[in-house]
Write a structure and sequence with these properties.
The chain is α+β, with helices and mostly antiparallel strands. The chain has four domains: about 140 residues, ibrinogen binding protein from staphylococcus aureus fold; about 80 residues, no CATH class; about 150 residues; about 110 residues, no CATH class. Helix content is about 35%, strand content about 20%. The protein is built from twelve helices and 20 strands. The strands form five sheets. It has a six-stranded antiparallel sheet with strand order 15-16-18-17-19-20, with helices on both faces. Strand 10 and strand 11 form a beta hairpin. The longest helix has about 50 residues.
């Protein structure tokens, strides 16, 4: 793995720039991933400690993070010991793939005590361990079996380092000893010699040193070329001791990460794209963070999607029942005709008759109407009139209910689209709050203790000609954008489908160019359920032409005067 011991040392040195920061909040997104919100010298950062085998991250980022509604018991334990404390230092545990973080925080009596987090970045054996000032374990993401004979990891036991490997420190070996080692290992690949002999090396670093020596990472060591390998190793050690780190990663043609390191990776040549970063935090969050965020978005959107689908399914079933009932009411005119026929022929009907036949004055044909023998002729007529009146009243109510239910189905379908296109946990939080406000999700917050969801800003773009275009990320933002836009600004929305409201803001009194219209329309098509389609129709009009009916769902507006454009549903600024 690329997160080797020496990489840990480089990362720890960078994280020490936040030494002295106060721990404001703590969240846990998974068993092996914690977020500590730090405040330092007027700025805030989210300290990510992720010891996942697939997404190892030790970084400080300004990006929003996933925050579960209910903290886990482990998260509450971390809050008890670390929240409102101070981040003191990050220290590499020499020759190990472990970074030791020190914190000072007050205990229940107000005494400041030292606590430690050990982030063990060891692939499938990775772990996050919280220990007290005496290095006794308080909590561990992964505990050992009680029968383990070596290195037991359990609450209350002293923290122990992993068993030592049969290797040496690359900084302790002399030049002559290294040449002797090469002579002893003649015929072995240079990268394998480095990897198996020294602490802290990952395969990619070993291959890179071999590549620097020979121009080929697969070259075998022999007595004649050992001096070249020694020279490359000495250059590596000098750069490491001088902290000449270069956070960089190599990506394939599809943007998928191949490898990353703290030294320049040249072994891949032109087979990959190399990106150099300003910091290891940016490297790790870019290399792993997007994948991690996608996982978190999927995890936290699952509950919302399940809730919305449940309400949508219920509304769709209700709609079918309402339409069936309305269909039953279609016979109400027949009930009226039957009552009229009985009334017109009442002089012919005697008590006890089971039916009467008369002329249907609407069709001119004869019609037979059944009678209840227990009722008088007048009562039989009233029975049909009552059915007619009941069906007439029901048809009006059912039509209104069908209209409301259809609007609810349309609204919930649109919400599902916004959830699918959500790009951050903050957007999901806004959508969830919208559903809470609409009564679809129960508000678990106690009265007076409701947490305000921070409003995410609408997306902003600048057209090629310099005009501002704003795009709503959900229905709440759609309402905000449209409700606060100037009457003369232009509003865009995909025709006949769910999507974002897009507002094109003019520059003073200047007229929009055709390119401005096209780019805004393309954004409206892209941020909709027709993303990626070709020849999509988009409506646009002045904001003053929009109307929001009273009591309508969030994000719903009506308009009559408008124009349409046909564009491709792609982002014009990608």
């Amino acid at each position: 793995m690329a997160f080797d011991g020496l990489f840990c040392a480089a990362v720890a040195q960078e994280l020490n720039k936040w030494a002295g920061a106060r721990v404001e909040k703590i969240h846990q997104s998974s068993q092996t991933c914690f977020y500590l919100q730090l405040y330092f010298e007027g700025k805030r950062g989210n300290f990510v400690i992720s010891a996942s085998a697939s997404r190892p991250i030790l970084a400080i980022t300004e990006e929003s993070v996933a925050r579960p509604d209910t903290p886990t018991p482990t998260c509450m334990l971390y809050r008890k010991h670390l929240q409102n404390g101070r981040f003191i230092s990050a220290e590499w545990v020499e020759n190990e793939r472990i970074v030791k973080f020190a914190f000072d925080s007050a205990d229940e009596m107000g005494y400041v005590k030292r606590k430690y987090i050990y982030a063990e970045m060891m692939g499938k054996y990775s772990n996050i361990i919280l220990a007290d000032e005496n290095d006794r374990i308080i909590s561990a993401s992964s505990v050992s079996d009680i029968t383990a004979s070596v290195r037991r990891i359990m609450a209350g036991l002293p923290y122990e380092l992993p068993p030592k490997q049969d290797k040496i420190s690359v900084f302790a070996i002399t030049d002559s000893d290294f040449i002797a080692l090469c002579r002893e290992k003649t015929g072995a690949r240079a990268c394998d010699l480095l990897l198996k002999s020294f602490f802290g090396f990952s395969p990619v670093v070993a291959r890179e040193i071999a590549f620097s020596a020979y121009g080929d990472s697969d070259t075998e060591v022999c007595e004649d070329n050992s001096a070249k390998l020694l020279g490359a190793l000495k250059a590596f050690k000098e750069a490491f001791k001088g902290s000449l780190f270069v956070p960089n990663a190599v990506y394939d043609s599809e943007g998928i990460g191949i490898e990353y390191s703290f030294i320049p990776l040249r072994q891949y040549g032109t087979s990959g794209e190399t990106r150099v970063y300003e910091s290891f935090s940016l490297l790790l969050t870019d290399y792993f963070g997007k994948k991690e965020e996608a996982v978190n978005i999927g995890r936290y959107s699952r509950e919302i999607v399940k809730t919305v689908n449940s309400h949508l399914s219920r509304a769709q079933k209700k709609l079918v029942l309402l339409k069936n009932e309305l269909e039953d009411c279609s016979s109400m005119e027949d009930m009226r005709l039957r009552g009229d026929l009985i009334t017109a022929n009442i002089y012919r009907i005697r008590q006890g008759d089971s039916s009467v036949t008369g002329m249907n004055y609407e069709t001119g044909e004869e019609m037979t109407v059944s009678l209840d023998i227990s009722l008088t002729p007048a009562k039989n007529a009233q029975k049909y009139y009552k059915k007619y009146s009941k069906m007439k009243r029901a048809s009006v109510i059912l039509a209104e209910q069908i209209k409301k239910t259809e609007a609810e189905c349309d609204y919930l379908s649109g919400v599902l689209g916004f959830i699918e296109r959500a790009a951050s946990p903050q957007e999901l939080a806004e959508i969830k709050q919208e559903l809470i406000d609409g009564g679809y999700i129960a508000d678990k917050a106690q009265s007076g203790k409701k947490k305000k969801t921070p409003a995410a800003k609408p997306l902003s773009f600048t057209t090629t000609d310099g005009l501002l275009v704003r795009v709503g990320r959900n229905n709440r933002q759609n309402d905000y954008l449209t409700g606060n836009a100037d009457r003369n600004e232009l509003w865009f929305h995909i025709k006949g489908f769910h999507g974002s409201h897009v507002i094109l803001t003019p520059n003073g009194n200047e007229e929009h160019s055709d390119r401005d219209y096209t780019e805004a329309a393309m954004l409206a098509a892209y941020y909709s359920e027709k993303r990626g389609s070709r020849n999509v129709e988009v409506d646009y009009t002045r904001v003053r032409c929009l109307k929001k009916p009273a009591g309508s769902a969030p994000g719903f507006v009506t308009y009559e005067k408008y124009w349409s454009a046909v564009v491709d549903a792609v982002n014009p600024f990608d």
